[in-house]
Amino acid sequence: MIPITNTLASRNNRVPMGLRWSGVLFVALLWEFAPRVHWVDASFVPPLSAVVGTIGLLLRDGGLLHHILASSLRAVAGLSAALVIGVPLGAFLGRASGDVRTVFDPFLRLLSQVNPFSLLPVFLLLFGSGELVKVAAVAWVAIWPVTFFSITGVVTAEPALVKTARSFGICGRELLVKVILPAAIPTLFVGIRIAANLVFFVLVGAEMLGTNAGLGWLVHNSAMNFQIKGIYAGALVVVLLGYGLTKALERAEHWVYEVYERTESDGRTAVGKDKNIDSTMAFSSSAGASLLKPGSDVGISGVSIVRAKYVVDANVTCIGAALPAVGTEAMS
Known about the structure:
two-stranded antiparallel sheet
């Protein structure tokens, strides 16, 4: 196996925490002192400490938590809808022939350029004036990076991994679920994180229209009443929520890898204990989970071959791939 180092992750791990946050600290200090030394008008750009104080007041009143909860529920609902639609669509197109992808790709690219706010009248006609309009706007902007990165992840799944799985009789749905999708998880999560970054920005705009709760409504209401500190407070909370969602998705990505590894490891152990017909080698579908594990070195093919006792069904075959002739005396 040839080790492949996750260069970006290793570089991030070598950067000191203080240096990583130095840019944020510089902006915070500039924001705090620029109004105080009259580089900018404090009436329009209040100091950071004043904005943080406004956030504290809104928290004590209980109104900010209500707005955060409303916006968070809409964001999660829209992102979940994008995942439910985008991942299966991307997996289908990724597994389809190149001609099918060539036909659908220009159409999907064209749709992805449509601004969700230009579709608000359509969403109002379809879903009414309730919560579904905001969720639909969020889902619309989130579905495209999820779909495109799902296609890319499935198409670029390691060919040697797929061929080896087929040669051991893994095909169809089992091949997709146990081999291709685990191998596509790193690329898929890139699309999910991009979608998460877009969600709150679109949601703020959608909440400014026809609603009475949410961070977008808070910013809009503050602007209408010339509450400058409230505008910055709402915007700062939106940024913090977006950052928190991105970090939560990174944790979820690592958790998914751990679950796949534990599940497949337990499965191999159970098979090794319970089966009694020899096969010299068997393919382990845990390879997909370890193919591109963040921050670690992986094999170029990601194929894990384990020696164990497996029951081999002679009737299990894949189109275009013959079952390897191992343990033929046991199968006869």
